[in-house]
Structure formats: C-alpha cells, structure tokens
Amino acid sequence: MRLYTKTGDDGTTGLVTGGRVGKDTLRVEACGAVDELNSAIGLADAACAHEEISQVLCGVQHRLFDLGADLMTVADEKSGGGGEAPAIAWRIGPEQVREAEAQIDAVCERLPELRQFILPGGCELAARLHMARTACRLAERRCVALGRGEKVNHDAVVYLNRLSDLLFALARLANQLEGVQDVTWEGG
Q1: What is the pTM of this model?
Q2: Which distant-in-sequence residues (6+ apart) come within 8 Å of 42 by Cβ?
Q3: Residue ranges of the chain with per-residue pLDDT less than 70
Q4: Are 160 and 99 in contact (CB under 8 A)?
Q5: Residues 33-36: contacts with CB under 8 Å, at least 24 apart
Q6: What pLDDT is stored for residue 187 in this prediction?
Q7: What CA–CA distances, in Å, run from 133 to 39, 111, 162?
Q8: Distance from C-alpha of 128 to C-alpha of 138, rounded to nearest angstrom
C-alpha cells in the first residue's frame, strides 16, 4: 500500500461515512487539533521513565484515535438522518469519561493539595505534559466551535475537558516522582 493516495490534492479529505470535505473546515480543524494533541502526548511519553504514567499516556493515545474517527464521522441519509452518527463510528462515551475521572482521582490522591496556581514546567516530562495539556484545551475549543454548527458527540468534548485535567495531574505527579517542586504563581 502506498502512503500517498493523491485524493487530497484538491484540498479535500475523506470522511469515515464517505464523502469529502475541505481540509480547512471546522471538522478537519478539530480532528487536526486532536492529532496535534496525540503527537504532544507521544512526545511527553518519549521523555517518560515512569511506567505508570506511560501506560496512561498510551491508553489516552488510543482513545484520541477513537475521538478522531468520531469527529470524521458525519450523519447522512444512509445512517437514518436525524443527526445520529452511523453505528460504524468509534465513540467516546461516558465510560471513557469515567475512566479519565478515576485516573485523575488516583493521581491526585498521591499529590499534596493544590492551594495556589502553579506555573507550567518543572522536570522535562512535566513541561511536556503541560504542553500536551494546552494542546488538549485547543482541541476542546475546536470541537466546541464545530459543535456550534454541526452535530458533535458531547461525550467527546467532555472527555477532552477531563483529559486536560488528567494531563495537569500527571504533570504534577511527574514533578513529584522526579523530586522537583511545582513552581507556584506569584501574582505581580
């Protein structure tokens, strides 16, 4: 199989449900932001020497592929219309949101209570996780923007919201595991 198909040379890309859309549409922008987030998580994982964090990041990367497929699935007449995506779509659902919440709770139980804002940074892994967190917030904003005009799986947006919290908690855990203090914000 060739890596290139030439089908996107006209500035369009294919949807899971068939059909093509412009590469500059809000749908493709949202999917691209999720792809950038996935790459940022991969970059963080490349600097990770902690198996417990690495396992979480790997699982998240798989869920983000599911989310990308979800974003690239559009309801059409073949799926019965009514705005429901066809059954072939990989979906982020309440169970993935609950899993992220459980992971956040498990990480936060190990951390000192947060009483001040902290600056993004610390050890290299924590800094990369903070970059992934900001990429996650961008992906969330892109999905919200898409949802203003088109149907978007609400659980996917909620998952991104929880994921940014999980990445924040993991950044704090990375600093703790590396013996690096979080730097608190000193308002000026």
Answers
A1: 0.89
A2: 57, 61
A3: 75-90
A4: no
A5: 33/135, 33/138, 33/139, 33/141, 33/142, 33/143, 34/64, 34/67, 34/68, 34/71, 34/139, 34/142, 34/143, 34/160, 35/64, 35/68, 36/135, 36/138, 36/139
A6: 87
A7: 12, 18, 10
A8: 15
- Most distant CA pair in the chain: distance in Å? 58
End-to-end CA distance of the chain: 57
Stated as kind and residue range, the H or E segment containing 70 is helix 51-71
- 16: CB partners within 8 A, 6+ apart: 69, 72, 73, 74, 88, 89
CB of 30 within 8 A of CB of 142? yes
Interatomic CA distance for residues 30 and 18, integer angstroms: 18
Residue from 133, 151, 136 nearest 91 by CA: 151
Q: Which residues contact 154 (CB under 8 A, 6 or more apart)?
A: 147
Token pair for residue 114? 């947060």
